[in-house]
What does this fold into?
Amino acid sequence: MAMSNVLGQKRIAKLLTGMIEHQRVSHAYIFAGPKGVGKDKMALEFAKALNCISTQADACDSCHNCRRIEHHNHQDVIWIEPDGKSIKIEQIRQLQKSFQYKLVDSKYKVLIIKQAEFMTLQAANSLLKFLEEPISPLVAILLVESQHQLISTIRSRCQIITFPYLDQQSIVQEMKQKGYREVEILLASNLTVDIEEVKNILDSDEFAQMKNIMVQWNEEIYSEDYRALLTVNDKIVKNDYIKQHLSQFLDLLILWYRDILNVKLNRNAFLVYRDYENILIKQGMQLTEERLIDQIEKIFFAKKQIAANVNLQLALEHLVLSIWEG
It folds into this structure.
């Protein structure tokens, strides 16, 4: 895969390609952006492009350098990631030793640090000295979610490239090509912009079960059926997967009410739960726009309570009762 094929990041691929073509490669970069937008993949493809034997500004994927870098077994491309909860000074010292050796069959030594914001202060200062006095032709790439989590002295010595969120249409097209149903992709991509997480959701039987429980629970809440309170205890609180993904579970409910609002506004083309359109229409006939907005706000309030460690069962039971009270 070339840089230009990294999903949703053609602008950045063009920028990096131009740097190689015009021999303006910086010695250090910060790739900043949310999880799942292609930072790791772009760093890998950039390392390949810098050292590709067959092409001048991108990766060919067929020369021995590209193949070895792709499989993380090239001696001149080193990856570092947190050891436990942090990147420690010993890890930086070790890479400094490895970079003392001369280039073998590469143009650049490439250092890629994943989750660089988790460097200890000692590790960051050691890396700073290394960046200021590189032993050999070096390109360092620091991958972070936010550049401001790095110390200012490192930021000032790096070229910062900000990765935007992936647009939903790119995710939908990519996953459709892999054989997933569009209606399921739409739901997953409304929950996360991380394409790997989207795939995990689509492949998860537990997520599908969680969605079905949400649909059942919503119907019980809508009907003011006392079983909605029993479902909290029997099918939500006791379900380990839902407890671990509770924010996502409540987001599913928010998306449901948003869909009802779209039905009432004649915006059916924007529905996420397209398989349930008839139910959405039926519920929309009984709920005003003001009531729907109020219910969404109550779900957000429940999420805040749970995040603040309020008892899970009490918070969800209170949510049900507050929706019934209007």
